[in-house]
Write a structure and sequence with these properties.
By secondary structure, the protein is an alpha+beta fold. The chain is built from 3 helices and 8 strands, in the order E-E-H-H-E-E-E-E-E-E-H. The radius of gyration is 23 Å and the shape is elongated. About 10% of the residues are buried.
Length: about 160
């Protein structure tokens, strides 16, 4: 949990992914040299058909790294104000905003469809709700639910 400048609590939920774009590029470059080196050696011996497959392998690696970096940038931010609880979820530039009246906001976990499936954490008030923390483990989700319940019951914080 981090705090905004005005002592109002703010919880930031994100996937456990420390893989940056720079790290992905370094890994891609490190893998490109051996793949193309081996492919070029076999192509010089007459097995030129290996070149398109080496290119396809690098294309798939690049796509997998791009997806991993993109998914690591997902964020959910829950802010607790005096009258409202605000939730922002999504990627930079494309975020969904939801607000709930603070006195009626509740957090709960619905069990998964099967016993082995993880539960789903919801925050809502009245007839509206939003799912949070799908990227967390079951233990982390349980702990976050307890913390959200504490913060919705806590004294009001000044809004900015």
């Amino acid at each position: 949990m981090t705090s905004t400048g005005d002592h109002a609590p703010r919880i930031v939920i994100r996937p456990n992914c420390n893989f940056s774009g720079r790290g992905a590029m370094a890994l891609f470059c490190a893998m490109t040299l051996p793949v193309l080196g081996v492919a070029a050696a076999w192509a010089l011996k007459g097995y030129w058909l290996i070149l398109p497959f080496a290119g396809l392998e690098l294309l798939m690696l690049g796509a997998a790294l791009a997806i991993t970096v993109h998914r690591g940038r997902y964020r959910e931010v829950v802010r607790f104000g005096r009258r409202r609880v605000r939730v922002q979820a999504g990627y930079a530039g494309r975020q969904e905003h939801v607000e709930f009246p603070r006195p009626w906001t509740r957090a709960w976990i619905e069990p998964g469809p099967r016993p082995a499936m993880p539960g789903r954490l919801f925050l809502g008030a009245g007839g509206s709700r939003c799912e949070l923390a799908a990227c967390l483990t079951e233990e982390e989700r349980q702990s976050l639910c307890r913390r959200l319940r504490e913060l919705t019951r806590a004294p009001a914080f000044p809004e900015k």
